[in-house]
Specification:
- Residues 131-178 form the RNA polymerase sigma factor 70 region 4 type domain.
- InterPro entries: RNA_pol_sigma-70-like, RNA_pol_sigma-70_dom, RNA_pol_sigma70_r2, RNA_pol_sigma70_r4_t2, RNA_pol_sigma_r2, RNA_pol_sigma_r3/r4-like, WH-like_DNA-bd_sf.
- This protein is an all-alpha fold.
- It contains eleven helices and no strands.
- α2 (17-25) packs across α3 and α9 (157-164) crosses α10.
- It is elongated, with a radius of gyration of 21 Å.
- The relative contact order is 0.09.
């Protein structure tokens, strides 16, 4: 009876992720529901940035399902928010690899990106992604337009040239200029951050 009262009291006074995870480890479904309610929407937004379509929600749901299945192995002292975001990223990488035959360079790039995600907190990742988005917004107008058509829309250089009625060399020059500006401002992690923003390795 005391145990039931304790659980009831704790469930109505949970204030930290640590407390939530402690209850989830005990297979408390209400605590798990509270965790989902707390992070589901923001994780879907993050997943959408990566995958860019309606599969984002499925990806997040898969992450929560795996968290519940492996709940007994959760460490209440670990940062569950970081775990959730990194799990979403890892789920995205798995989906990316299943849906596309990777070239060796792409596979190596994903390994580097995964290592970057694993060694940075979610707060640092969000700051870095926001910085990348701001720097893209600050690109010269025409270069930004070409760059976004290439990275976000996935158009080939020739398709961009036809769409904007400019030469292929002009498209290549704008993309090269954009890369040069971004690398100068963001350094060696530019390609990793571009992947986190656009979900593309090239």
């Amino acid at each position: 009876m005391f145990e039931c009262f304790f659980i009831f009291f704790l469930m109505n006074n949970l204030t930290t992720d640590t407390e939530l995870v402690e209850m989830i480890v005990l297979s408390n479904e209400k605590a798990f529901t509270l965790l989902i309610e707390k992070y589901y929407q923001s994780l879907c937004v993050y997943a959408y940035k990566l995958i860019g379509n309606e599969e984002a929600q499925d990806l997040v749901q898969n992450v929560f399902m795996k968290i519940w299945i492996k709940r007994l192995k959760l460490n209440p002292e670990a940062n569950i928010k970081n775990l959730l975001y990194k799990s979403v990223f890892n789920e995205f990488v798995d989906t990316y690899r299943k849906n596309k035959k990777l070239e060796p360079l792409e596979y190596q790039c994903l390994k580097v990106i995964n290592a970057y995600v694993e060694t940075n907190s979610q707060e640092d990742l969000e700051l870095a992604i926001n910085l990348m988005q701001r720097e893209i917004d600050n690109l010269p107008n025409k270069s930004k337009e070409v760059f976004i058509l290439s990275k976000r829309q996935g158009l080939t250089n020739q398709e961009i040239a036809d769409y904007l009625n400019i030469s292929l060399k002009t498209v290549e020059a704008h993309i090269s200029k954009s890369y040069s500006i971004l690398k100068k401002r963001l350094g060696e992690n530019t390609n990793i951050l571009l992947f986190l923003v656009f979900g593309r390795v090239n």
